[in-house]
Amino acid sequence: MMENHKYAVVDIETTGHSSSNGDRIIQLAIVFVENKQIMNTYSTFVNPEKPIPSFIQDLTKIKEKDVVDAPLFEQVAATIHDLLQDHIFVAHNIHFDLSFLQAELKRVGLPKLVCKTVDTVEFAKLMFPNVYSFKLQDLAEELHIDLHTAHRADDDALATAHLLNKCMEQLSTLPIRTIELLHKRSFQLKSNLSLIFFQVLTKKRKEYESREFLFYRNIPLMQEKEMNSNQNRAIKFPNQKSEKLALFRANLLNFEERQGQFKLLDKIYQSLQEQTEIVCEAETGIGKTLGYLLPATIYAIEKQKPVIISTYTTHLIDQLELEEIPKLEKLLGYDIRVAKLKGMQHYIDLQRFWQHLQHEDESYDETFTIMQVLVWLTITNAGDLTELNVSGGGQLFLEKIRRTDRNVSVDLASIDYYERALRKSKECDVLVTNHAMILADQDREFQLLADGCATIIDEAHQFIHAAVSKKERVFSYTNWKYVLGQFGTLDTDQLLGRLTKMSIPNPLKMRLEKLYVAIVETFDLAVVYIINAIQQSSIRSKYTKRSIGIDELDLNDTILRNVSNAIQAFVLSAKSIVHSSYVSNLDEFQESTLLNEWDYWLSELEIKVNEWDDIFLLDEEIEAKWIEFDTRSIPGSLTVIKRPLHIHDEINKAINPMREAGGIVWTSGTITVPNNRYFITSQLGLSPSIPIYQFKAAKDYYKGAELLIVEDMPDIKQVSQSEYIEAVAEAIVQTVLVTGGRCFVLFTSQDMLRKTVELIQDTNLLEDYMLFAQGMTSGSRMRLLKSFQRFSKSVLFGTNSFWEGVDVPGDALSVIIMVRLPFSSPDDPLFKKRAELLTKSGQNPFSAYSLPEAVLRFRQGFGRLIRASSDKGTFIVLDRRIEIKSYGQDFLQSIPNIPIKKVSLENMVLELENWYTK
User: How crowded is residue 676: how many other Cβ atoms within 10 Å of its Cβ?
Assistant: First the structure.
């Protein structure tokens, strides 16, 4: 039985990652667990007989004085070895703790530990597949586990022991069938979790299964949650200021009156009532989200039709549902019926997943992801695959089980997650979706968003990017090779090879193989042809990563068209041959699965050939097409991008049905720039007659902000790039040292970012700090941000694309350094094409596009600094153009009225010292 197992939960802290390179243990802790009870603990500091690096001291809070009188490892090694015998060894990332400990035991002459293992990283990923991060500190916060001091062995070991119990408790709540399916695959895991699965399953079979689940082909599914019925009472909009104050004060803790927010409430409610279209720019500090949610929700309840709220990212959709809507419910004392609706591809296809369960898994990643999905299906109500936190290899598997078919079988209609979402969208008060969904709705035979009473488009400036993305086409060499590789030849285990199990006449199979080989040959020939054209062009650069406009190359359509013809011939023949009525050596299920796979990958080929034609063979004047590549990895890095420059028609086509249904509110924190009020709205294709309202934060909201312009930075045009980077690195180092970290650094070039970070690393001047850099440090944007927040002595380096939507309230961020004013590079192919079109129309590309675009980015960068009235921060600009160029005033006028000081680098240090000691 599970209760008879004895677990030793171990955590160690070390001077570094490699015992073989001389790193040593500085603290070791063991927590003994039996019958889910903590029976005993052991903890000791260890003298490593070497200095503890500053970074390790900052991370673990273990100082030299803590270990100076501690025993050497050889003095406690035998005791540790004896304590761990006859226990299952448990650790969070067992590969590190056990491997390091084994190496140290060997070093002092003790035998290797022989034990079963449980990795709580592996266990937690299976039991909680939808949490954001599997780092111990993040899991502890998510699962309400006390973790007093992270990265201290005693506290980490205790938290890991509680995590082990949480995982076991979660496993025990799963239905028997799910545990059976998990146990079947558990023998392929990296630690001995099969022991736990078997014992929980044995116990579970003796107990009564009390939880109710839907089942699809013996896969347990969470029951659909019923929406709250709408209360039979009206909610009145608080028209008077006194009514608003009474409502907010009674229901929101620590409420601070924001006059701008109340004005925003009134303006939006008026617009919805009058069914007009308006634009609202609401600065940080206004309370924009609640400012549109309250009037929109009340209006929807009045009309008994849903209000549609659209934002840009999945993260923001979840934030609305999980944070803002509950806040509004508390404010109104009303259960709001909320539905989320995303594109079909976000949802799981249950039939495809069931079919994959019948196959042998291709890899550890596939096995592991299948197990995560099995658990997730018992806890998800939405069936949205973005809820899952899977590995890179796991993402490849998720692509295989996405919902892509427009029609669903009758037996699946009631439980299919996409169909569920559609049903909810018809019965809600608030329908939350994203910009991409609105844009895609115009192409549907039956529009999904046509029944709303009004529409709020949040992050309105991002609607432009969403529209561009919808029309953008991208050719990726590696992606094409992956798709083509799914077919193989008759002597492989790929799709063509598996046809040998069907009694298709050999001449037909050989014909298909010949047509497939023709695709590969014509594709490879076309790629070589493109590479030769690039090499023969006049492009010269000292950088390995380059881009070049397609119109700068002399390409022959015939060679490119051969690829399309070869794919079309193969797809046509494959559809005819594969689905012909031949006797099969496969059973009905296996045959159905194989045919479904053929259908899926043939449809992928059809998508690919359409992309190929669109990119290489179709020319439109109002678009930019360019090739990106890295000279160090051709053709692997070869990417071709086609992007539209004008998307007015696309946006208006999507929005017009919503205009007919009710009012439209476009809102954003940054939608105007000085001297070009209509810069964003004109790109959206909005009429100049649509009013733009601006709502400012209270005057004292930015009292904790200042802007410093460093006057003695060199002119980048007068010095070499290396000299300029040295000056930038010096300014960053001085700033970080005086502020103690908590610093963002914003670049316009990934190349300059990389070289600056490498120079700082080489100097070791910031060796006591954690440096996180976009494009250099692994992980997503949100993961880098989480890592940055975890350490007080940290610096985060990013480019323009990194900053929008990043929110770091409080002391986690104290300084933003803007290295260069965020103009687009004049060599950027997209900018060059846009400038060419503006020039043709008689406009100045700089004043009409380049400057307002940069000013908008400048505003967005500044907007990351102060996220609450109590925040304090400094915005440092290293680019002297903001001072010496006439357009510098456009940047300064675009941000709130805060103190602006021109200082030398030396005086900047003094100013920062004075500012942060006030």
Answer: 18
Question: Encoding tokens for residue 801?
Answer: 């694309």
Q: What is the pLDDT of residues 577-608, one digit of tens each?
A: 887 766 566 666 677 777 878 888 898 899 99
Is 286 annotated for ligand binding? yes
E strand residue ranges, 382-520? 430-434, 454-457, 473-476
Alpha carbons 743 and 194: distance in angstroms, whole number: 45
| 616 residue type, one letter | F
The reply to whether 842 sits in an annotated binding site is: no
Question: Do residues 876 and 746 lie in contact, with contact meaning Cβ atoms separated by under 8 Å?
Answer: no
**284 annotated as belonging to a binding site for a ligand:** yes
What pLDDT, in 10s, does the model give residues 49-101?
999 887 788 778 899 999 999 999 999 999 999 999 989 999 999 999 999 99
Residues 692 and 684: beta-carbon distance below 8 Å: no
Q: How many CB atoms neighbour CB 224 within 10 A?
A: 15
* Tokens matching residue 13: 């802290």
Residue 654 has pLDDT above 60, yes or no: yes
- Bridge partners, 704 (sequence order): none
Mean pLDDT across the chain, nearest whole number?
87
Contacts of 437 by beta carbon, 8 Å cutoff, 6+ apart = 310, 341, 342, 343, 448, 449
Q: How many CA atoms lie within 13 A of 335 on its CB side?
A: 7
282 belongs to an annotated ligand binding site = yes
C-beta of residue 856 within 8 angstroms of C-beta of residue 673:
yes
Q: Was 285 annotated as part of a binding site?
A: yes
Better pLDDT: 298 or 718: 298
* Domains, in order of start, for the chain: 2-213 (3.30.420.10), 473-644 (1.20.120), 699-916 (3.40.50.300)
Within 377-482, strands assigned E span 430-434, 454-457, 473-476
N-term to C-term CA, the chain = 62
Full-model pTM: 0.82
Instruction: Check if the beta carbon of residue 913 is closer than 8 Å to that of residue 735.
Output: no
Measured CA to CA, the distance from residue 696 to residue 198 in angstroms comes to 61
Helices 73-84 & 94-107, crossing angle to 10 degrees?
A: 120
Asked whether residue 861 is marked as a ligand-binding residue, the answer is no
What residues have CB less than 8 Å from 911, skipping those under 6 apart?
A: 708, 901, 903
